[in-house]
Amino acid sequence: MKANSTKLSQLMKSVEIPFIKTEVPEIKVGDTIQLGLMVKEGSKTREQLCEGVVLARRRKKSLNTSLTLRCSFQGIGVERVFFLNSPRITFVKVIRRAKIRRAKLYYLRDLLGKAGRLKQIFN
């Protein structure tokens, strides 16, 4: 039974490899990133920029790698989940890195203004 599951996982990895993006920079929780997203409106497509703090990251090295990004849109906090290997994502750029001690930053949801700032790492 175990041999069949390993064969299946190897088969899944071989199918996923061509679809995994290689030009994505290393993104950690707490980073402030800028993300380009292709949005289709009617018959036209345009690129929408989204900038925010990464609250969570899931499945680091697979095709299903996703991250939760918290953006501020017109003074309201908006959280969106993005799949990094999606063809709709055109680019990802790390703007700022922060010193954090948590794996998930969900506590930032409750903080407002200066209380929600993270300590920046200067490298």
Please explain how this structure is put together.
Its main location: plastid. This is Large ribosomal subunit protein bL19c. It is found in: Plastid, Chloroplast. InterPro entries: Ribosomal_bL19, Ribosomal_bL19_CS, Ribosomal_bL19_sf, Translation_prot_SH3-like_sf. This protein has 123 residues and is mainly β. Helices cover 12% and strands 45% of the residues. Strands 4-3-2-1-5-6 form a six-stranded antiparallel sheet, with no helix packed on it.
Which features would summarize this protein structure in a list?
single chain; Large ribosomal subunit protein bL19c; SH3 type barrels; mainly beta; Ribosomal_bL19_sf; 6 strands; plastid; ribosomal protein; 123 residues; ribonucleoprotein
**Nearest-angstrom radius of gyration?**
17 Å
Q: Return the CATH architecture.
A: Roll
**Could you give the order of strands across the largest sheet?**
4-3-2-1-5-6
As a percent range, the share of strand residues is: 35-45%
> By helix and strand content, what is the structural category?
mainly beta
Order of helices and strands: HEEEEEE
Count of discrete alpha- or pi-helical segments spanning 4 or more residues: 1
Instruction: Indicate how many domains the architecture comprises.
Output: 1
CATH class: Mainly Beta
End-to-end CA span: 49 Å
In total, how many beta strands? Answer: 6
Largest sheet: 6 strands, antiparallel
- The dominant shape is globular
The chain-level mean pLDDT equals 88
Family: Belongs to the bacterial ribosomal protein bL19 family.
Keywords: Chloroplast, Plastid, Ribonucleoprotein, Ribosomal protein
Protein name: Large ribosomal subunit protein bL19c
GO molecular function, one term: structural constituent of ribosome
